Amino acid sequence: MSFVLGPIIKARFLERSNRFLVRCVADSLGCLSAHLPNPGRLWELLLPGATLYLNRVADSQGVRSTARKTEHTVLAVEREGRPIFLHTHATNQVARYLVERRMLPSLNSARVVQTEVTVGKSRFDFLLRENGEDLYLEVKSCTLFGNGVAMFPDAVTERGKRHLLQLAEMGRSGLPSMVLFLVHYPGVRWFMPDYHTDFDFSTTLLKIRKDVRILPAAIGWKKDLTLDEKVKVLKIPWEYLKGEVKDCGSYLLLLELKKERVIEAGSLGRIRFERGYYIYVGSAMGKLKARIARHQRKHKSSHWHIDYLTQEADNILPLPVRSSQRLECEMAQSLCSIMQQGPARFGSSDCQCVTHLFWSRENPLHAQDFHRFLQSFRMRSP
User: Fold this and answer.
1) Angle formed at CA 246 by CA 171 and CA 188, multiple of 5 degrees
2) Which of 139, 200, 273, 353 is the most exposed place for a label (fewest CB within 10 A)?
3) 381: part of which helix (H) or strand (E)?
């Protein structure tokens, strides 16, 4: 089954101009801008040179729409030789197709009654009819996966959390509800909320799981962007999550220095820091959110080596790795193989590691090796 109108154009990803616009280059068209109908971070997918699948926006007569600034839309991106569907609006069409064809085991007696249904102050994707009862269905598109695990969301979503709370309230009041997490990659077994990225959404999902039906399902796409007819229902390791979704663990700080600086780093003395990107590895086995918030404050008393560097950094991005285990030193050892080591003993005076600070001229978020490293700690099978 195809959900794409018109021919597919392949292009190479160059950069993301904003949340909904990318720059890319196609052999037949040259450099162009395309609409990206997906607000997620997509860091591990939109890497320099990644293959994008585009189509040209036109009306039913094939005439270009004049209501849009861009002529093309991003439909998918290739990862590991397979297209990963990115079009969040079209994902609802896919969900409807799966329901109507009875391809979702727990919804094989349901039919679509209405789309875009408003209840209170929230709007949900579908109203279904199942065994004579109404069922409200919200669809979430999931593209974050690795090591047999799929996770949602890949960015903080207040709207997603609000949907969960509203659906749970409806469920408790006698209005059955469900969330369908549609994972656009078939090679996974487990589904989990991304508690590293959105702790509040994840804790909310755990709290409401008895009031809302939760269905994670994995699908696949062929090279011509037709849907593979196989659907896999994924497992959610609730007991594992109860032990891991806590405000503790390790973290990375991604710091950018736009120019070279000489910084007084406490007991380490004066250190010359080249311009570029630095990764610092730390841990807090309690109050992790508070520790990260402290690092992001510019005005504070300097206590650790990293405090001196954060005060000089032009940009700071925290990357939490929540876990019941202290992974700090293991993460530092793994980083040694993909980044250059920083000053000796930086952040590691209380352990045997050479350093907990690493450097790269280019942004690590643009490197596939860095995302593999990050997923190896964030996305571990239970």
Assistant:
1) 70
2) 200
3) none
Chain segment 138-149, per-residue pLDDT in tens: 999 999 999 999
Angle at 204 between CA 198 and CA 208, to 5 degrees: 150
Structure tokens at 378: 């964030």
Residue pointed to by tokens 């196609």: 26
Domains in the chain: boundaries: 9-80, 88-244, 249-378
Question: Are 79 and 220 spatial neighbours (Cβ–Cβ below 8 Å)?
Answer: no
How far apart CA 361 and CA 39 sit, in angstroms, is 28
Q: Specify the DSSP element, H or E, that contains 34.
A: strand 30-35
Contact between residue 237 and residue 148 where contact means Cβ atoms under 8 Å apart:
no
- Count CB-CB contacts under 10 A for residue 201: 22
pLDDT digit string, tens, across residues 41-85: 999 999 999 999 999 874 433 444 545 688 999 999 999 999 999
Instruction: Note the pLDDT of residue 28.
Output: 86
Parallel, antiparallel, or unpaired: how do β-strands 30-35 and 72-79 relate?
A: parallel
Angle, CA of 233, 235 and 241, to the nearest 5°: 150
Residues 111/155, Cβ–Cβ less than 8 Å: no
- Model confidence at 6, pLDDT cuts 50, 70, 90, reads confident
What fold, for 88-244?
A: Trna Endonuclease; Chain: A, domain 1 (3.40.1350)
Q: Is the bond preceding 7 in cis, omega lying within 30 degrees of 0?
A: no
* Helix 328-335 × helix 368-378 angle, to 10°: 160
Residue 305 CA to residue 216 CA, distance in Å, equals 43
Whole-angstrom Cα distance, residue 259 to residue 111? 59
Closest alpha carbon to 40 in 200, 222, 198: 198
- pTM attached to this predicted model: 0.93
